[in-house]
Design goal:
By secondary structure, this protein is of the alpha/beta class. It folds into 3 domains: 2-40 and 56-78 and 215-300 and 437-490, FAD/NAD(P)-binding domain (3-Layer(bba) Sandwich); 103-203, no CATH class; 305-425, Guanine Nucleotide Dissociation Inhibitor, domain 2. It has helices spanning 10-21, 59-68, 102-112, 117-134, 145-157, 164-171, 175-180, 201-209, 218-231, 276-283, 294-298, 332-341, 385-403, 408-411, 420-425, 472-490, and strands at 2-6, 25-29, 41-44, 47-50, 79-81, 86-89, 95-98, 212-214, 235-237, 242-247, 254-259, 264-266, 269-272, 305-313, 323-326, 350-353, 368-376, 412-418, 459-461. The strands form 5 sheets. It has a 7-stranded mixed β-sheet. It has a 5-stranded parallel β-sheet with strand order 9-2-1-13-19, covered by helices on one side. Helix 1 packs parallel to helix 16 (472-490), helix 4 (117-134) runs antiparallel to helix 6 (164-171) and helix 4 (117-134) packs across helix 8. The longest helix has 19 residues, at 385-403. The radius of gyration is 22 Å and the shape is globular. It starts with a strand and ends with a helix.
C-alpha cells in the first residue's frame, strides 16, 4: 500500500517505521524544516535546546520499535538512565529527591511525614495493580464500544473514576508528599485533580524502569528514528505543508493529500500525526465529517498550554539536577486557574530542565543549557500574550534568581521563548493546547478521538490527541496501533 503520514512527531515516525517494516510504500510529510514535531531542536549561540519532550520512560518501547525493523537501538542512539529522576522543591525550602531507590524514598517520606510511610506503601501496591491492567491496553485500539465494555470491570475495580490526586490523597496526608506523588499528569497535559487515576501507573513505571535521557538531547532520538526510516527505504519530505486530505465523494475514502503547493500525493491510506482537532477542522472537508463535526471537536476539553523560556548561561549551576520541579505557593488553586478559569496567575509552578547536568556537550565549555516551563491556560482564555509574555518571562527569571539561581539575569547569554500562540500558529495545535485532548476518564480509551476515523475508513491518527494519549510511551504506542490496524486491513 501507498501510505502518507502527515507529521513527523514520535507518533508519526513510529507508525511510519512499523508500516515500512510491513513492506508498505511510506512517505512522511512535515511542515517544518526539521523532523520531530514538538520535539524540535533549536541551536543558538553554541547552545542546544530541546524544544519538546525531555523525559523518556518505558525504554523498551524504543527497543521494540528498532527490533520491528530488525535493528538495535544502540546502533542509532545512546540512551542513559538519570538519577535522580526529579528533584522537587517547595516554597518552605524542603526538597524531595525522587528516584528508583525504595529505601531512599521511604527515608525521605519519614522525614517529611512519618505517618505517611504505610500509606505510601499502599499507594505503591495500587500503582502496580493499575500498571498491570493499564499498560496492557496502551497498544490496543478502542475503535468499538465493545472494546470499552471488555475492560469496564477492571476500570470499576481500579476506581478509574477517581482522579490521580484523589487516589493519591486517599493514601497520603502530607500536602507536600501528595504533590510529589500526583504531579505526573501535568507531564502529559492533564490536571491531577481531573485526570483518571489510571495514570497513577506512571509511578510504578518509573520505579521499575527508571527515567532516561538520549545523549545529545531528545532530538538525537528523532534523528535516530529518521535515519532508521531512511535505512529502510522510507521517504521524509520536510518543509512540506498539507492543505487538504483528498477524499473521494463516492467511496468516502481518502485518496491522498494535497499540499500547499498544489501537488497531490496519492495514497491508499493516510495517517495524521498532526493535532487531531486541527486535522479534522482544517484538512477534512465538513461534508466528510458526519461524526467528527466542528461542534463535536469544539466540545472536547483540551489540555493546558505552555510558556517555555530556553536560555543559556555562561556559568554552571551544579547544585541543580537534570529535572527540577519547583512547586509554587498554591497547587490545586493554581491548577484551577490554568484548567478551569483559564486565567494567567501571578504565581506559578515550574519545570526546570538542565540537560547539561547529564550531557555538557549541549552548551559551550563551562556553560549550562536550560529551559524553564510553566503550565499556562490555552488560548480559550482572556490572556493577550502579545502583552503578557514579557512581564511573565521577567517574573519567572526573577523568581529563579531569588530562590534557586543567584545572579541568573547577569549570566544569561542566549535566550528564546515560546508561548500558546506558538503552539497554535507554528505547531497547528487547536487553541494552542500543548498536549491536545485532556486525559480525563470521559476522554480516554473509546471516549478519546479514535485511531481510525469513524468518518473516513482509511484515515488514521497517531499522536497525543488519540488513544492512548500524550507522552513518549503514549504517542509511540499510538503509532503501533495504527500500523497494526493498517496491517490487518491490508491482509
Amino acid at each position: 500500500m501507498r501510505i502518507v503520514v502527515i507529521g513527523s512527531g514520535f507518533g508519526g515516525l513510529a507508525a511510519a517505521i512499523r508500516l515500512r517494516a510491513q513492506g508498505h510504500d511510506v512517505t512522511v510529510v512535515e511542515q517544518r524544516d526539521q523532523a520531530g514535531g514538538r520535539a524540535y531542536v533549536y541551536k543558538q549561540d553554541g547552545f542546544t535546546f530541546d524544544g519538546g519532550p525531555t523525559i523518556i520512560t518505558a525504554p523498551w518501547l524504543i527497543d521494540e520499535l528498532f527490533a520491528s525493523a530488525g535493528r538495535k537501538t544502540a546502533d542509532y542512539v545512546r540512551i542513559v538512565p538519570i538519577d535522580p529522576f526529579y528533584r522537587i522543591r517547595f516554597e518552605d525550602g524542603s526538597v524531595f529527591t525522587y528516584n528508583g531507590d525504595r529505601a531512599a524514598l521511604l527515608e525521605q517520606i519519614r522525614a517529611f511525614s512519618p505517618a505517611d510511610e504505610k500509606g505510601y506503601l499502599e499507594f505503591v501496591k495500587q500503582s502496580e495493580s493499575v500498571f498491570d491492567t493499564g499498560m496492557a491496553l496502551i497498544d490496543k485500539p478502542f475503535g468499538k464500544i465493545t472494546d470499552m465494555l471488555k475492560v469496564l470491570p477492571d476500570l470499576i475495580r481500579l476506581r478509574a473514576d477517581r482522579s490521580v490526586a484523589g487516589m493519591t490523597n486517599s493514601f497520603i496526608k502530607d500536602e507536600r508528599l501528595r504533590q510529589v506523588f500526583s504531579f505526573h499528569p501535568l507531564l502529559v497535559g492533564g490536571n491531577p485533580f481531573q485526570t483518571t487515576s489510571i495514570y497513577t501507573l506512571i509511578h510504578h513505571l518509573e520505579q521499575k524502569w527508571g527515567v532516561w535521557f538520549a545523549m545529545g538531547g531528545t532530538g538525537k532520538l528523532v534523528e535516530a528514528f529518521v535515519r532508521l526510516l531512511a535505512d529502510m527505504g522510507g521517504t521524509l519530505r520536510l518543509s512540506t505543508k498539507v492543505s487538504e486530505i483528498v477524499i473521494d465523494d463516492v467511496t468516502g475514502k481518502a485518496t491522498g493529500v494535497r499540499l500547499a503547493s498544489g501537488e497531490v500525493i496519492a495514497a491508499d491510506a493516510v495517517v495524521s500525526n498532526g493535532d487531531v482537532a486541527f486535522t479534522y477542522k482544517h484538512l477534512v472537508a465538513p461534508r466528510h465529517r458526519r461524526k467528527n463535526t466542528d461542534r463535536r471537536i469544539d466540545g472536547l476539553d483540551y489540555s493546558m498550554s505552555l510558556f517555555v523560556i530556553y536560555f543559556g548561561t555562561d556559568r554552571r549551576y551544579d547544585d541543580i539536577a537534570h529535572h527540577e520541579i519547583l512547586m509554587g505557593p498554591r497547587y490545586k488553586e493554581l491548577l484551577r486557574d490554568v484548567f478551569d478559569a483559564k486565567t494567567l496567575s501571578k504565581d506559578f509552578s515550574l519545570y526546570l530542565h538542565r540537560p547539561t547536568a547529564t550531557d555538557p556537550s549541549l552548551a559551550p565549555p563551562g556553560c549550562d543549557s536550560w529551559y524553564v516551563l510553566s503550565p499556562v491556560p490555552h488560548l480559550g482564555g482572556p490572556t493577550d500574550w502579545a502583552k503578557a509574555a514579557q512581564p511573565y518571562r521577567d517574573a519567572i527569571i526573577a523568581y529563579l534568581e531569588e530562590r534557586y539561581m543567584p545572579g541568573l539575569s547577569e549570566h544569561i547569554v542566549s535566550e528564546m521563548r515560546i508561548d500558546p500562540v506558538h503552539f497554535r500558529d507554528t505547531l497547528s495545535s487547536h487553541l494552542g493546547s500543548a498536549f491536545s485532548v485532556q486525559p480525563t476518564l470521559t476522554q480516554s480509551a473509546w471516549f478519546r478521538p479514535h485511531n481510525r476515523s469513524e468518518d473516513v475508513p482509511n484515515l488514521f491518527f497517531a499522536g497525543a490527541g488519540t488513544h492512548p494519549g500524550a507522552g513518549l510511551p503514549g504517542v509511540m504506542s499510538s503509532g503501533k496501533i495504527v500500523a497494526d490496524l493498517i496491517g490487518d486491513a491490508a491482509r
